[in-house]
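Repro:
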Amino acid sequence: MAEIRLEDIIRPENLVYKKTPLMTDNILSYCPGCGHGTAHRLIMEVVEELGFQEKTIGICPVGCSVLAYDFMNIDMQQAAHGRAPALATGIKRTWPGRIVFTYQGDGDLAAIGTAETIHVCNRGENLTMIFINNGIYGMTGGQMAPTTLEGMKSSTSPYGRDVHMMGYPLKMTEVVATLPGTYFVTRQAVHTPAAVRKAKKAIRIAFENQRDNKGGVSFVEIVSNCNSGWKMRPVDANHWMEQNMFPFFPLGDMKVDGKIVK
């Protein structure tokens, strides 16, 4: 019997999938089951497919998202907590030909960075915002965030969020969809293959809008889990997300071509 060699098997015509070269070889340091790694891969696949590697600039602030510069093989810039939209504005206005995106968590974008988010979206800056929403502050200890659900437990709401004392969860994506400066606003997820495909399509649309100077912010929220912060196994966290996060943060497009659709 002839010997089967590895190089005879790994041929271009036999490859079903390969890692995008825009993801570095660094081992992802996120918790097992976290959606950040999948979101990173989708963004970099879209950048590769559109041929944007040499002109894309990503901005990541404080939180789990700050680790992105270890894994994305493009120009990256760190911002102070909550200030990524302001920094992105400066970069985009200085180099309007660049493709600029922010990559932010909910504690960053919807809490300390609320003002920057609102004003960038209201001004209609021609850039892309990627918003990872897991309902808590993931990196700093699982504290309650503006997006923490009513009754949801966290390290600072151990008995569950009491809206009479702590206020209501903030639907940031619905808020920015009402602003005249947003062109494309959507909410997606990355917990199943079907969800991943939809999320990638949304990210591609967001970058294409920027490339084509559609004249506004393209805003992509990705509802994700935080199994470590939620104190759950990854599979259980995904089920909890489906049963609790999605009813309050429903998936789908909210604004397309500058018009609210839902």
